[in-house]
Design brief:
heterodimer; A: mainly alpha; MetI-like fold; 2 domains; two-stranded antiparallel sheet; about 0% strand; globular; B: mainly alpha; 12 helices; about 75% helix
Chain lengths: ~290, ~270
C-alpha cells in the first residue's frame, strides 16, 4: 500500500511539487499578501468621525492630509534622519570591528569574537532598549556614572537617545554581512595593492570599500528598514519625540484608514531604497 | 599591505570599545536585578536576591510565560512544516515563479513589523470578522518564522545534494523509505536549529504581537512593556529582563552546535 502510494507520487513530480507548495503558498499569498493588499485598499478609505467606523468609499483624503500637514512631513523627515544616522553609525562601527575579526584576529579569537557579536541578537529586543533606559537616565544613569568623570554626559531621552538605542539594536546586523564580506576578500588583493605602492588608506578606499559595498548595502537594508518602522524605542527612550511608527500606532485604534496610509510611507521608502540600490548593481553581486 | 603596530593597537581598542558598547548595557540589567533599591539607583548600594524569588511567584509573569510558550511552540511547529515544504520545493524542482517564492518568504521580515502587524490586524478584524486572540498571534508569528526554517533547511539541502537519495533509490528503496532513512536524518539538525530559531524569534516578538493579541492575552514581551512604566513593578521587570539575557545565550549555543552550517546570518 505505502509502496504503491510512493510509486504513484514518484511518477508524478508535478503532483509532488503541488502537494509541497499548496499549504505554504496559501499561507503566504492568501493570508499575508492578501492582508497587505487589503491594507493598501484601506489606506484610501475614511472613517465616520462620530462612530469611528470605517467607511468603504474610495478617496484620497488621507494622502492629502499626509502630504499637506506639516507635522506629518516633520515626522517623516525626522524618521528618515534617524534611520540614516543609525545606518551611518552602524557602518562606521562595524567596518573596523569586522576587519579586525576577519583579518587580524587569530582563528580561535575569531570564533569567540563572532559568538560574542552574535549572542546579543538573541537577547530580547525589549530588554535591550530597557537597558538603554537605565544607561541614558539623565544625571543618575550609568553613562553619567561611567563617563561623567571624563566630562561626557548622557544626552538623555530624545533624538540622540533614539539614535544610540537603535544603533545598539541593529549593530550586529551590520557587523555580520561586512564580516562575511571581509572573509570573502582574498588577502592577496590587499598584498597586491600594497606591493604596487598603495598606502593603507588608499587600499581601503580603492580596493576594500568597492568590494565590500554589497555587504554594506545588505547590512544597511536591515539597519534602515528596521529603524524606519520602529515605535517602541521612541516610546521608551525617545522622550516626547515621535517617529513614523508612533503615528501609525496612535492612529490604529482611532483612525485605521489613516494608520494604513501612514504605514504606506515606510513601504514606499523601502521600495525607493531597493530600487536605488538595484541601480548600483549591489544586489546582483550579493 | 602591512599593518603598522599603531593601526593594530587602534583596531584592537576599537574592537574593545565595540564589545564594551554591546555588553555594558546587558551587564547593567543583570546587576540591577540584584539591586536592593526598589526604584532605579545606580550604582547599587547593596545586593539582594529577594526580587528573584518575588518574580518566580509573580502570577502575571507565569501567565505571560505560558502564553509565550504556547505561541512560540505553535508558531515554530507550523513554520517548521511550511518552511520545510518550501525549501524542498525550491531546491528539488524548477518551476515558474521559483525566484518569486524565495522573495515572498523573506518579505514578512523585510518589511517593518508594524506594517505586518497592522496589515494582519486589519485583515482579521475588518475583512474576516475574527476577533484577535491566541489564534491570530500564532498566524502572525508563523508568517515571519517561516523564513528562518526555510533558510536553515535549504542551506542544508544544498549542501547534501541529491546523490545520497539517488543512491538509496538505485538500491531499491522507495520514496518514503528514502525520506525516512536518508533525507530526514541528514536534515534533522537543520530542522531542529530552524525550529529553535523560529521559537526564539516568536518568543521575543512584540510589535506584531501588539497588533494581533486580544486584550486578554499578554505574552512575556507585552507584559514587560506594560509594566515598564509602573514604578512598583520595576524590580520584577529587572529580574525578567536579566533572565531573558541569560537565556539568550542558550539558543545561539544550541543552533551553532546542531546546525553545523556556518550560517553567519544565524537569525535570518
Amino acid at each position: 500500500m505505502l509502496k504503491s502510494i510512493s510509486t504513484w507520487f514518484h511518477n508524478r513530480p508535478r503532483v509532488r511539487l503541488a502537494a509541497l507548495l499548496v499549504a505554504p503558498l496559501f499561507w503566504l499569498v492568501v493570508a499575508y499578501l492578501g492582508a497587505l493588499a487589503s491594507l493598501l485598499v484601506t489606506a484610501f478609505y475614511t472613517i465616520n468621525t462620530f462612530t469611528g467606523n470605517v467607511i468603504r468609499t474610495f478617496n484620497l483624503g488621507n494622502f492629502q492630509e499626509l502630504f499637506t500637514n506639516p507635522s506629518y512631513r516633520n515626522v517623516v523627515v525626522r524618521t528618515l534622519g534617524i534611520a540614516l544616522s543609525v545606518t551611518i553609525i552602524c557602518t562606521l562601527l562595524a567596518l573596523p570591528m569586522a576587519f579586525f575579526m576577519a583579518k587580524i584576529a587569530k582563528p580561535r579569537t575569531q570564533k569567540v569574537l563572532v559568538a560574542l557579536v552574535l549572542t546579543p541578537l538573541w537577547a530580547s529586543y525589549l530588554v535591550k532598549i530597557y537597558a538603554w533606559r537605565t544607561m541614558l537616565e539623565p544625571n543618575s544613569g550609568v553613562i553619567d556614572w561611567l563617563l561623567g568623570p571624563i566630562g561626557i554626559h548622557s544626552p538623555g531621552f530624545g533624538f540622540a537617545g533614539i539614535i544610540i538605542g537603535l544603533s545598539y539594536l541593529w549593530l550586529p546586523y551590520m557587523i555580520l554581512p561586512i564580516y562575511a564580506g571581509f572573509e570573502r576578500l582574498p588577502n592577496s588583493l590587499l598584498d597586491a595593492s600594497g606591493d604596487l605602492g598603495a598606502k593603507n588608506l588608499y587600499t581601503l578606499r580603492r580596493v576594500v570599500l568597492p568590494i565590500l559595498f554589497p555587504s554594506i548595502v545588505a547590512g544597511s537594508m536591515f539597519t534602515f528598514s528596521l529603524s524606519l518602522g520602529d515605535y517602541i524605542t521612541a516610546t521608551i527612550i525617545g522622550g516626547k519625540l515621535q517617529m513614523l511608527g508612533n503615528v501609525v500606532y496612535q492612529n490604529y485604534s482611532l483612525n485605521l484608514p489613516f494608520a494604513a496610509t501612514m504605514s504606506m510611507v515606510p513601504i514606499a521608502i523601502m521600495g525607493i531604497y531597493l530600487w536605488a540600490v538595484r541601480r548600483t548593481g549591489a544586489l546582483t553581486s550579493l | 599591505m602591512t599593518i603598522s603596530r599603531l593601526t593594530r593597537y587602534a583596531l584592537i581598542s576599537l574592537m574593545g570599545v565595540g564589545l564594551a558598547f554591546i555588553y555594558i548595557p546587558l551587564t547593567v540589567v543583570v546587576v540591577n536585578s540584584f539591586n536592593v533599591s526598589r526604584t532605579f539607583s545606580w550604582p547599587p548600594k547593596d545586593f539582594t536576591t529577594q526580587w528573584w524569588s518575588k518574580a518566580i511567584e509573580n502570577t502575571g509573569v507565569r501567565e505571560a510565560l505560558k502564553w509565550s510558550f504556547t505561541a512560540g511552540l505553535a508558531a515554530a511547529g507550523l513554520a517548521l512544516v511550511l518552511g520545510t515544504c518550501i525549501a524542498f520545493a525550491v531546491s528539488k524542482y524548477s518551476f515558474f515563479g521559483r525566484e518569486t517564492i524565495s522573495l515572498l518568504v523573506v518579505l514578512p521580515i523585510s518589511l517593518p513589523g508594524i506594517v505586518t502587524g497592522i496589515a494582519l490586524n486589519n485583515a482579521f478584524t475588518q475583512d474576516l470578522g475574527i476577533s484577535t486572540g491566541m489564534f491570530t498571534i500564532i498566524v502572525g508569528h508563523t508568517t515571519f518564522c517561516i523564513v528562518v526554517v526555510y533558510n536553515n533547511v535549504i542551506a542544508r539541502l544544498k549542501r547534501i545534494g541529491g546523490s545520497l537519495q539517488e543512491a538509496s533509490m538505485d538500491l531499491g528503496a522507495n520514496g518514503i523509505t528514502t525520506f525516512r532513512l536518508i533525507t530526514l536524518p541528514n536534515i534533522a539538525g537543520a530542522l531542529f536549529a530552524g525550529a529553535i530559531l523560529a521559537f526564539g524569534l516568536s518568543f521575543d516578538e512584540i510589535v506584531v504581537t501588539t497588533f494581533t493579541a486580544g486584550p486578554g492575552i499578554q505574552t512575556l514581551p507585552i507584559w514587560i512593556y506594560n509594566n515598564l512604566f509602573r514604578p512598583n513593578q520595576a524590580p520584577i521587570v529587572n529580574v525578567v529582563a536579566a533572565t531573558l539575557i541569560l537565556f539568550s545565550l542558550l539558543p545561539i549555543y544550541l543552533s551553532q552546535k546542531l546546525s553545523g552550517d556556518s550560517n553567519t546570518g544565524g537569525r535570518f
